[in-house]
Design goal:
- The chain is an alpha+beta fold and 1068 residues long.
- It has 26 helices and 44 strands.
- The longest helix is centred in the C-terminal third of the chain and has 35 residues.
- Microtubule-dependent motor protein required for mitochondrion morphology and transport of mitochondria in neuronal cells.
- It is found in: Mitochondrion membrane.
- It comes from Crassostrea virginica.
- Its main location: mitochondrion.
Length: 1068
């Protein structure tokens, strides 16, 4: 048969509820076979277009029939489940009857609709069930007595490069082995259960059995459904009896594959993690992509000699026949229609476009039965001789060591033995009649409890129903609550609980549920240390349960209580259907994270989605840490835009920043912390799951090398906090000296940083006094240099005394430069006196804009060391350490609050004596809600601007009250300019107005101006401390003019006068 290309179809789903809530924009268009995608970030850009065999529009234009089936509305181009089957599934079925191998696999990111197309939901059955149903309908229509049919069904899951048989209760540790047939070269799963089926109802029941098995595994954290591939294999044999009495077997293998979510590895941002290469998160999909690319190159003839890397993963081994082999293959790519998923959807389209170039060579699998049996017997004899002869003799001198040769020989012997056993099993199958095998399988199938008989009980008895992140796995497990007590715990408890759970944080005796005539209550088992949450809140004592209450046992087992006897007890605000997402939002709200989407920008919505995604992962990892006693704790940290590290940024750039989701890991023994980006944490969490699985399999994981331990991380500098240095004074060639607050990611004050900013020459020497300019545009097209000096710091927390340094990034001579101060050790009040001269060869308007609205972010770091912990702490386990740490933090919080109250009282006294005291350090964001940080920081900015405005009004009022003879406009102008330009741009209009006034007044003769100005110059000459301090409190300038002799050349420090004005500098 000539080569046949892989058929590729794409299908776009409707908006889901989350996307509707966020007013998502549609980015997909379809016309005929053409699919185009628009970039939401570049609306004027030409949409990217792709052509496929089928483009299915299932986004809108449908109506629901009375039986729940969705069909096209009048004049709509909506593609229903039936139409997709007729185009794709019917072709699979027709090819199977002709004797061809067939493969159908669905590809796309998590939540894009793969499972809906493959399996369906409710009455809207997908391709797999419709194909199976139609196959048995065709079999039932057969009237030829010389033709009989044999159908077998198998279902497996590939997760973390391990194969699990979903139809078997007993899976070996490490999963089933994948072997290669030495004769055909194809791979197969050893000891995979293949069940004879005689009707669609039996297939449906077996599918439900496999789905329940997936649900249990996912809940126990042995697998995560979105990261697992599900493969359903149906072997369809037609045995045709000829007139001579000989039989011919026409065989077809149908592989129906639901691939894991195709999230790109780089989209999680896990770059730089030392253990990234060891993670298998996307290994199988990456390998599949490499196979598709290699086959596409071969089919197009671009490369003649290329080895297709089938062996790189379990998935590609099993799909070898489907891709580039003896199979008619169809790929359906599921697309998300929302703008928020643009990158992933574009990646899916490109993947599908590559796959359509692959060509397969399908042949009819038809052979006489006696010939097949004879070939099996001959192959068995050959394999036995090979075994008796010591296996395949390896040639020496092939570049292999004796140890490698021996290892290869043993492997080949093992493969031969496995193939021999498989052949013998096939011979035994042929000897046993099909009817006997089918009857035996049906007896087993009838015993499977799929819950069909429980529907009547659900209308009159309370029960728990499971929730899962995969909607296809929700509602699969049901536990009825009989009158009296229902115990919950592990199956190794004595007595065995009524509801047996396993997995993280599940205790032997976990909880007891009481049912007294429909009144349901729950209580944790005393002394068990069990963790249970009701509607997101920890269970303490005995609690009454209402209809639709959400219950989380341990870390993973989420259930909803359904009480048909007391339906009125349900909260009226609850949605009609409780989903996994709703339950997770509830937990996030209890932890202080906002979950409402009203008024949020696209970036904020993404952050919210990431928080909801990562919270259950953090709970899971904390549970593993406790169970393996790793002495680490994890928490979600939301770093606000204002608190992020950065270089020199403008306000317009800062406005585009968004909060960043990170995870903080803390060593509970010595207090060291690490801040992991979301992608790095997701990778580590996956490796932690692998480690925990080894622990469950009985391996000793307590002594693994620390370099291989996902919980271990070498010490690194920890970010204490950041300070933002604003640059408006440089626009007027003014100095700026101030003490800035150091704020951590929560907005809490961690200390102060004293800095100085001064214009200078290219060697760092301060420029002349007369360099001050009225109009910043006078500086354009001239070289400009300024010096940034980090003088001292004052850090509050003693654990940072091991060493402190400051880092910042700045553009110097047109190139970004990383600047780092020396590390000062063994003190909390380091003196750096570190200066850096920054040069601009030719000042442009963009530089002035940066001075006007930009800032340099100074990041203060503390040195961490692997210190020996307190010996008393070594006696505590991880749970006890976490509890002790929480108690200590609560105690410190109480002490800090008391200290702040005392500081407030001192500041009040200071204000009464005429001194201005900082008030921004008292405004501390709540520890319970990181999302309030943005509001707190913006409030600080607002109050600071208010304070500056009041000061300007005061200066103007003082000036207006002076007699005309004493009104000196130059000092007055400079005073107002200093106040206005030392903060944001809000008061710029006042400066411009005063500039105009100054120009008018310069034309008026002022007899006293010369005398007073010379007095001012003498004062500056006599007092070095006063030179170039034009950004101090302007009231001091006017006082100096009046009482120059009284000062004796001494002035209050600029830090004291300006401490309040810029201590709360934040990016708007």
């Amino acid at each position: 048969m000539p080569d046949e290309s892989v058929k590729v179809a794409v299908r776009v789903r409707p908006f889901n509820q989350r996307e509707k809530d966020r007013s998502a924009k549609l980015i997909i268009k379809m016309q005929g076979q053409m699919t185009s995608i628009s970039n939401p970030e570049a609306p004027n850009e030409e949409p990217k277009s792709f052509s496929f065999d089928y483009s299915y529009w299932s986004h809108d234009g449908f109506k629901e029939r009375s039986d729940g089936i969705l069909e096209p509305a009048g004049g709509s181009n909506y593609s229903s489940q039936r139409r997709v089957f007729e185009d794709l599934g019917q072709g699979v079925l027709d090819n199977a009857f002709e004797g061809y191998n067939c493969s159908l696999f669905a590809y796309g990111q998590t939540g894009s609709g793969k499972s809906y197309s493959m399996v369906g939901y409710g009455q809207n059955k997908g391709i797999v069930p419709i194909t199976c149903d139609e196959m048995f309908k065709s079999i039932d229509k057969n009237t030829d007595s010389n033709k009989r049919f044999e159908v077998t069904f198998s279902m497996l899951e590939i997760y973390n490069e391990q194969v699990r048989d979903l139809l078997s209760k007993d899976n070996p540790k490490g999963g089933l082995n994948v072997r290669q047939n030495p004769k055909l070269g194809l791979f197969y799963v050893e000891n995979l259960k293949r069940v004879p089926v005689g009707s669609y109802a039996e297939i449906e029941k077996r599918t439900e059995q496999g789905t329940a098995s997936r649900t249990v595994a996912s809940t126990n954290m042995n697998a995560t459904s979105s990261r697992a591939h599900t493969v359903v294999t149906i072997t369809f044999d037609q045995i045709i009896k000829s007139e001579s009495g000989s039989e011919t077997k026409k065989s077809s293998v149908m592989n129906l594959v639901d691939l894991a979510g195709s999230e790109r590895a780089d989209s999680t941002g896990a770059t730089g993690d030392r253990l990234k290469e060891g993670a298998n998160i996307n290994k199988s999909l990456s390998a599949l992509g490499n196979v598709i690319s290699a086959l596409a190159d071969l089919s197009m003839g671009t490369k003649k000699k290329i080895m297709v890397p089938y062996r790189d993963s379990i998935l590609t081994k099993l799909l070898q026949n489907a891709l580039g082999g003896n199979s008619k293959t169809i790929m359906i790519a599921a697309l998300s229609p929302a703008d928020i998923n643009y990158d992933e959807t574009l990646s899916t389209l490109r993947y599908a476009d590559r796959a359509k170039k692959i060509k397969n060579k399908a042949v009819v699998n038809e052979n006489p039965l006696d010939k097949l049996i004879r070939e099996l017997k001959e192959e068995n004899e050959r394999l036995k001789k090979a075994m008796e002869g010591g296996g395949v003799m390896m040639q020496e001198g092939a570049g292999l060591t004796p140890e490698e040769l021996e290892k290869m020989r043993k492997q080949m012997e093992e493969d031969i033995r496995a193939q021999l056993m498989a052949n013998q099993a096939m011979l035994a199958d042929n000897e046993e009649s099909w009817n006997e095998k089918l009857a035996e399988a049906r007896t087993e199938t009838d015993k499977i409890d799929t819950g069909g008989a429980d529907d009547k009980r659900k209308n009159k008895e309370p029960y728990l129903i499971n929730l899962n992140e995969d909607p296809m796995l929700s509602g699969v497990i049901c536990h009825f609550l009989n009158n009296g007590e229902t115990s919950v715990g592990r199956k190794d408890a004595s007595p065995v609980p009524n509801i047996c759970l396993s997995g993280l944080s599940i205790q032997k005796q976990h909880a007891v549920i009481f049912n007294k005539k429909g009144v349901i209550e729950i209580e944790s088992v005393s002394g068990s240390g069990s963790k249970t949450k009701i509607n997101g809140l920890p269970l303490t004592g005995r609690k009454a349960l209402c209809h639709k209450d959400r219950i989380l046992f341990g870390s993973n087992h989420m259930y909803v209580l359904m009480n048909p006897l007391k339906p009125d007890t349900a909260d009226n605000s609850l949605p009609k259907e409780i989903t996994w997402e709703y339950a997770q939002k509830e937990i996030a709200q209890v932890k202080g994270f906002a979950t409402g989407s009203a008024g949020l920008s696209k970036e904020q919505q993404i952050v919210q989605e990431q928080v909801l995604e990562i919270l259950p992962m953090v709970s899971e990892v904390n549970a593993v840490s406790e169970e393996l006693n790793k002495q680490k704790s994890f928490e979600v940290v939301l770093i606000s835009a204002a608190a992020q590290e950065g270089g020199d940024v403008t306000q317009s750039q800062a406005s585009n920043w968004t909060s960043k989701v990170t995870v903080k890991m803390k060593n509970l023994l010595n207090g060291n912390t690490w801040l992991w980006e979301r992608g790095k944490f997701i990778t580590r969490r996956y490796l932690i799951q692998e480690l925990y699985q080894k622990f469950l399999d009985g391996e000793d994981v307590s002594n693994i090398p620390k370099e291989q331990d996902p919980f271990w991380e070498p010490t690194e500098d920890v970010l204490i906090g950041t300070s933002n240095l604003f640059l408006q004074s440089l626009s007027y060639c003014l100095d700026f000296m101030d003490t800035l607050n150091i704020s951590d990611y929560k907005g809490q004050e961690e200390g102060q940083l004293k800095v100085k900013l001064e214009p200078c020459d290219n060697k760092g020497k301060p420029i002349d006094e007369e360099a001050f300019v009225d109009d910043p545009h006078e500086l354009l097209n001239k070289p400009y240099h300024f010096k940034l000096t980090v003088e001292t710091a004052n850090i509050h927390k003693s654990r940072f005394s091991k060493g402190i340094l400051v880092k910042y990034s700045v553009k110097n001579n047109g190139k970004m430069e990383e600047v780092k101060t020396p590390t000062v050790k063994n003190t909390l009040t380091p003196t750096f006196n570190h200066s850096k001269v920054i040069s601009i060869p030719k000042l442009k308007q963009e530089n002035l804009d940066f001075f006007e609205s930009g800032c340099i972010t100074l990041s203060v770091y503390g040195i961490q060391e692997d210190t020996m912990p307190d010996p008393k702490l070594l006696k505590l386990n991880t749970r006890e350490l976490r509890e002790a740490t929480m108690y200590k933090e609560l105690r410190n919080l109480t002490i800090n609050q008391e200290l702040r109250q005392m500081e407030t009282m001192e500041n009040t006294t200071a204000n009464a004596s005429g001194r201005r005291a900082t008030m921004f350090g008292n405004e501390i964001a709540s520890d319970t809600s990181h999302l309030k940080t943005e509001v707190v920081l913006l409030q600080r900015k607002y109050e600071r601007l208010q304070q500056k405005e009041r000061r300007m009004q005061q200066i103007c009022e003082e000036w207006s009250k002076k007699p005309d003879g004493e009104k000196q406009f130059e000092p007055f102008y400079r005073a107002v300019s200093a106040v206005a330009n030392s903060t944001g741009t809000r008061l710029k209009t006042r400066v411009q107005m005063l500039n105009q006034m100054l120009k008018l007044q310069k034309s008026v003769a002022l007899p006293s101006y010369k005398d007073n100005s010379s007095s001012m110059l003498r004062l500056q000459k006599d007092s070095p401390d006063l030179q170039r301090q034009k950004t101090m409190d302007p009231s001091m300038l006017s006082k100096a003019n009046k009482t120059s002799t009284a000062t004796n050349g001494k002035r209050p420090s600029s830090a004291e006068n300006n401490k309040t004005e810029s201590s709360a500098c934040v990016i708007q």
